[in-house]
Design a protein that fits this description.
Layout lengths: L6 E5 L4 H12 L3 E8 L6 H12 L4 E6 L22 H4 L11 H16 L3 E3 L15 H13 L2 H4 L5 E3 L7 H10 L24 H13 L10
Parallel strand pairs: 1-2, 1-4, 2-3, 4-5
Length: 231
């Protein structure tokens, strides 16, 4: 009798990083439950990409949770602020960018933790990465470690003896290394979306930090970007 694969909740945005993490979770033998968050982001096209990514990897259970972080604002992704364009590497690496969404990963992981309790999973996967100038405080290994501690303190499952693990397999990897790892796992990056400021048709701007880091990553990996709308 075959033992069912262990479930894991994977936060999936439809971007390059979270798509790679989904492939990694599957490669480790997990049965993923994908959680996509519609939080009022200006690049909501990523949610449609997330569904396509999940389907391409045979994921049966995809949940979409809607919250509206526009009510909080404070970010170029959720408020009427211009998204920075054409910044050089030195500028990107200095300070926390205005595309930082206050407490976003804390909120996302909290939702993933709640779903994990419901589906009986003790493993959470998130595509945070502290390299390549992201500058986001909630992408650091220290944050992941502390949230894992919280998960084991603040849940019924944790109190009853379950041990939650928050996996951030991309932490410390460059964008090029992430892309190479994904290619080795058969990831179709043509389904993904990275742009913070797409046009009304969902096409990448080619000039925001995320677009520039994606371009550089593919160039350094020596892999062509298969995304049709990459500019």
């Amino acid at each position: 009798m075959t033992t069912p694969a262990k479930k894991a909740v994977v936060l999936l945005s439809g971007g390059l990083d979270s798509t790679t993490v989904l492939a990694m979770a599957k490669a480790r033998g997990f049965d993923p439950v994908c959680l996509c968050i519609a939080y009022g982001q200006r690049h909501a096209v990523e949610l449609e990409r997330a569904k396509k990514v999940a389907a391409s990897m045979g994921v049966q259970d995809v949940r979409v949770v809607t919250i509206d972080l526009r009510a909080i604002g404070g970010s170029a992704l959720t408020a009427p602020m211009p998204v920075p364009k054409d910044r050089d590497e030195r500028t990107m690496s200095s300070g926390i960018p205005i595309t930082y969404v206050p407490a976003r990963n804390t909120v996302f992981l909290a939702l993933a933790l709640g779903l994990a309790e419901v589906v009986g999973a003790t493993d959470l996967f998130i595509g945070v990465n502290a390299v390549d100038y992201s500058g986001y405080p909630d992408c650091r290994p220290e944050f992941i470690h502390e949230f894992e501690r919280l998960a084991n303190l603040a849940t019924k499952a944790g109190v009853e003896g379950a041990r939650f693990t928050v996996h951030a397999p991309l932490s410390g990897m460059t964008k090029a290394e992430i892309i190479r790892a994904g290619v080795a796992l058969g990831v179709d990056y043509g389904l993904t979306h990275s742009c913070y400021d797409p046009d009304p048709q969902g096409r990448a701007c080619g000039h925001c930090d995320s677009c520039l880091l994606r371009k550089r990553g593919f160039a350094e990996a020596g892999v062509p970007d298969p995304t049709p709308d990459a500019t």
